[in-house]
C-alpha cells in the first residue's frame, strides 16, 4: 500500500494541519510519506493507493498556483483506483471559505475514490482536533475496506 500526503502552505497553517493529521496516520500507516507539493513526483501519481491533499485558498476562493500541476495531474492520469481526502485552511473573512478545498473535492469526486474532506479556519486549534481525529478515522476505514476487497 503506497500512501502519501501532499500539501502547499504559504504561512504555515495548512502545514500545521497536515502535520497533525500525519502524526495520527503514522501508527496505522507506517509507510505514509509527507511531501510539499513541489517535492512530489507528479509522474508517479497513479502509483499511489491513497493520497491526502492539503491546500490553502488563494485569490477569490481559488486553488493556489503551487497546486495547479497536482490538480491537473489528477485530471490527466488514471487515478480511478485511488482513495483520496482533501483538507485545507482558509479564512472566513473571504466570501468563499476554503474554496480550494471545494475545487479539489469536486474534481477528486469525479476522478478518484474520494473518502473525506476537512476545512479549518487559519491555524489549527485544540477545538479542531476532534474533527482531525474523525477525518483520520474515516480515511483509515475507507483504505482498510478497500484492501480487504
Ligand atoms: C490574497 C489572499 C487571498 C485569500 N483568499 C481566500 C479565500 O478566497 N478563501 C479563504 O477561505 N481564504 C483565503 N485566504 C486566506 C488563506 O487561505 C488562509 O490565511 C490560510 O490559512 C493560509 O494557509 P497557509 O498558512 O497554509 O498558507 C486568502 C489569503 C490571501 C493572502
Automatic annotation (TrEMBL):
Q: What is this protein called?
A: Flavodoxin
- One of its Pfam families is Flavodoxin_1
- What is the role of the protein in this entry? Low-potential electron donor to a number of redox enzymes.
Q: What are the residue boundaries of the Flavodoxin-like domain, all occurrences included?
A: 3-140
Cofactor(s) demanded: FMN
The family database entries (SUPFAM superfamilies) matched by this protein are listed as: Flavoproteins (SSF52218)
Sorted UniProt keywords: Electron transport, Flavoprotein, FMN, Transport
- Keyword match Transport: yes
What family does the database annotate?
Belongs to the flavodoxin family.
Amino acid at each position: 500500500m503506497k500512501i502519501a500526503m501532499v500539501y502547499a502552505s504559504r504561512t504555515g497553517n495548512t502545514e500545521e494541519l497536515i502535520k497533525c493529521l500525519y502524526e495520527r496516520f503514522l501508527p496505522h500507516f507506517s509507510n505514509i510519506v509527507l511531501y510539499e507539493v513541489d517535492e512530489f513526483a507528479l509522474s508517479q501519481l497513479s502509483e499511489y493507493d491513497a493520497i491526502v491533499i492539503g491546500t490553502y485558498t488563494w485569490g477569490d476562493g481559488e486553488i493556489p498556483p503551487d497546486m495547479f500541476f497536482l490538480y491537473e495531474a489528477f485530471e490527466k492520469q488514471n487515478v480511478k483506483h485511488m482513495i483520496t481526502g482533501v483538507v485545507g485552511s482558509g479564512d472566513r473573512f473571504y466570501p468563499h471559505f476554503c474554496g480550494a478545498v471545494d475545487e479539489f473535492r469536486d474534481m477528486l469526486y469525479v476522478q478518484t475514490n474520494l473518502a473525506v474532506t476537512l476545512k479549518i479556519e487559519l491555524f489549527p486549534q485544540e477545538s479542531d482536533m476532534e474533527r482531525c481525529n474523525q477525518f483520520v478515522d474515516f480515511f483509515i476505514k475507507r483504505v482498510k475496506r478497500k484492501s480487504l476487497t
